[in-house]
């Protein structure tokens, strides 16, 4: 190997040594290795005698330049290390940071917000209504005939004054349509009540998000498209939807919407009861009888409505298997969200 | 309702597996799941054929049996039952079977002889209480078959979760009809051909309907000289598969036809039908009847009765009377097939608090024109099972025929609602496939059979098209329009900002129950009158909350009982109070509750711990209203029934909330200690805020500290007001910097130090100007509050 090449090699070797950010003691060693009296560069210098005379000067300059660079690099680093050590004397930067305890937003509120934000992006407004409702708005106006078995679908709390605790957020649809003319495009979140025995799967109240779009030319295909966008956004790009025929008095046709189980990718698991599907919401085209109770022309307008339970979605999302946890308010539970 | 896979196949040819069938039905809106008729452990219990039985060499009561389990080997099983014999078919619990109580069958030695299983009694299989001997199976049973297959006859049960509109699918024929439309097949409806005697039914019985609106149709037949006995195995298996217990051949026949046609039927013992007639009438107030379940029931004039010439014999459409029940010695029968008004049956069932298979169907609407068919089917089956003769003809009281509904249906409208391009031809075949008569080309005139009472309008037919066409086949549009309308900002956005702010401040959001005990309405704001439930789940959930205190206290108690002492909790929720000026009778508003207890800041290596007190609560409220919403709130001290050191919170002149300490000696607040605050959130809070920029002053501020000695009774708020009033225009703000009471100060006195910050917007202030203001402030304090300067820095 030529000695010229050897110089180049030593330079890159030195660069590598520095790249590993050597400590102060290492720098001392490096200095000795390269620049010491018996150091490798002095050694190299001695070999100048083997160079052909015409290039001796060139070689000498090359080695000197390397020597100079090494000296400078090591000195700079040593100064830096020494001053750093001086500044941090007495301070243990590894001590823990001062704790600023943040609070928590309830998991149901977080779930509701996630749902709301997707529908906001799809152009839906938010409307709210009271939890105590007249029977007319909760049932009659929504095409639940009196003395019809459909009223048994929702176990109802009645008040002594004849009103009811709303069994769904659908009476807000009625309020909206009575106050305004189409187009109406809103979601309606809120607390609803069911007179059911309390257990891991049921509580006397829960929260719903309902959606309503009324305009000319609203179709079932558009309903499907909207819910598909929502489900993909919320549950993941790959979920599939299934629209099953169902029955709700206030929509016709009515559907139950299933999404492919995102926990097992539709293969079947405990949560989806081996079916590969999770029932996630109900929907349908607004029944003409609902339009007539609010004075809309059902020939001119069509509309769709959908509704989902916030608890159900939160339970699926967070893997919670007991609805009562949401209302126990154990801070060790709440702090997980 | 449960249906049987094998039974269904009697009415339609299908080559679907039970799983495929369940999927198909679910897709059509008849949600179906496969159910287990028998317990899991039956799968390892197999039919065994006893080849030989010998006495056990060392035990008198034991037998050593060689049993064929269908696998070609002979299995040695020890049995202790007296009735075991060679040639029998028996139920063998094979090795590995685990019984529900935990007993596990293993290879075992009994008195020196090895046994490879156990021969079971009916009680061991939990089929009956009979443990007198082993269960002997049918001679035709095939060794090796598991018990579930043996008992079900290789059938599979499906549970249908039907929506209340689909009364037509409450029988096997109805389900088959829907399947036929889906699969493009036709159903095989069994014929009802009867051999009748020469005796005319009409000569023997008459039917009189008093209330034709409640009972539009009532048909009866008589069957004489029958013999009550057990039902044959095929019938028992059919009923078993749909979850109905076998009683006797007549009752079973009536249940069989119910499950076949979906039409409820009733059988009376003719000898207890007096006066040779049936009268259908409304009950009288307080009239009584003892129903089949042995309960005496008091009726009112809304309940429909079936009576004979003397007395009520059944509650129409709900349950028969005990007095006319079919018994073991019954020989002559009156069969009833009728149509009752759904509302009448529903009201009656609710009055009696009785839901039966019959009332379930009548409430949802049965087919008035299917009555003769169901009646003939029943009469035919009874004679087949129990012998006897059917008298000639039905007595059919049907004063006003209920005709099928005719509905106009526009093909274009259907496509418009669904967003589809389905052809008229395809729609035609879907509707006719469902049993409808259809005429017309672009607008159909559709005659809807009376077994579909749910279809009365065009939109109902649109649903049928969607259902059979398949919603999953409806194309998804690439574009859709949205409403060209901006929506108003709603209070939920402000609530979100409050929640965000408090969570960032370290609070945990809780969700309390809105339902509280009638006795639990703490007077947080005043005497709100709660809304009371008429049908509460329990006493402690019988009214609507008037404040958020109850839920909060429950949450605090829950956490403190679990050693969580440091709490920062809040809830934003609706409360209500009685207000008769609103149509719901209730006024609702949104409240915010806040609670602090224990240490706000835990001790850390660089920081002291900080205990919660009302001053923190004041500061939190200030940051929420003044800083976040730019609303000016103020506090005034007040007496409060539940809180000590209480303050009322004002937004302008309006009292919006209270705060104060909760006392551990106060049982009304569950002996909880902490700082409580509840605010009635004005609906427009923060909505009107308009921030106007003010130029940032470029001239420096000057700080002066003012330390005064003052009587301990003087209030800070008075001193602060005095400073503000006397300061002149350069004081930007004063901040209370320190309070001291103690040794170095005279008793009855306290020292307060204020940091005063001065600034002129237009130039730098001179020392002289500040001295002048400072002295004026001091003078004001000296004059009004007897303050003395302690030290000026």
Instruction: Bin the strand percentage of chain A.
Output: 15-25%
- State the CATH class of the largest domain in chain B: Alpha Beta
Helix tally of chain A equals: 12
What is the typical, i.e. mean, pLDDT of chain A? 90
Q: Cα-atom Rg of chain A, whole angstroms?
A: 37 Å
**Global Rg of chain B:** 42 Å
Supply the CATH superfamily name of the largest domain in chain B: Phenylalanyl-trna Synthetase, Chain B, domain 3
Question: Please, could you describe this protein's structure?
Answer:
The complex is a heterodimer of chains A (about 325) and B (about 800). Chain A is about 40% helix and about 20% strand. By secondary structure, chain A is an alpha+beta fold. Chain A has 2 domains: about 80 residues; about 230 residues, Bira Bifunctional Protein, Domain 2 (BirA Bifunctional Protein, domain 2). In chain A, helix 5 packs across helix 10. The relative contact order of chain A is 0.10. In chain B, about 25% of the residues lie in helices and about 30% in strands. Chain B is an alpha+beta fold and about 800 residues long. In chain B, strands 28-31-32-38-37-36-35 form a 7-stranded mixed beta sheet, sandwiched between helices. Chain B has 5 domains: about 110 residues, Nucleic acid-binding proteins (OB fold (Dihydrolipoamide Acetyltransferase, E2P), Beta Barrel), CATH 2.40.50.140; about 200 residues, Phenylalanyl-tRNA Synthetase, Chain B, domain 3 (3-Layer(bba) Sandwich); about 70 residues, Phenylalanyl-tRNA Synthetase, Chain B, domain 1; about 190 residues, BirA Bifunctional Protein, domain 2, CATH 3.30.930; about 90 residues, Alpha-Beta Plaits (2-Layer Sandwich). Classes of the chains: A alpha+beta (about 325), B alpha+beta (about 800). At the A-B interface, helix 5, strand 1, strand 2, strand 4 and strand 5 of A face helix 8, helix 11, helix 13, helix 14 and strand 28 of B.
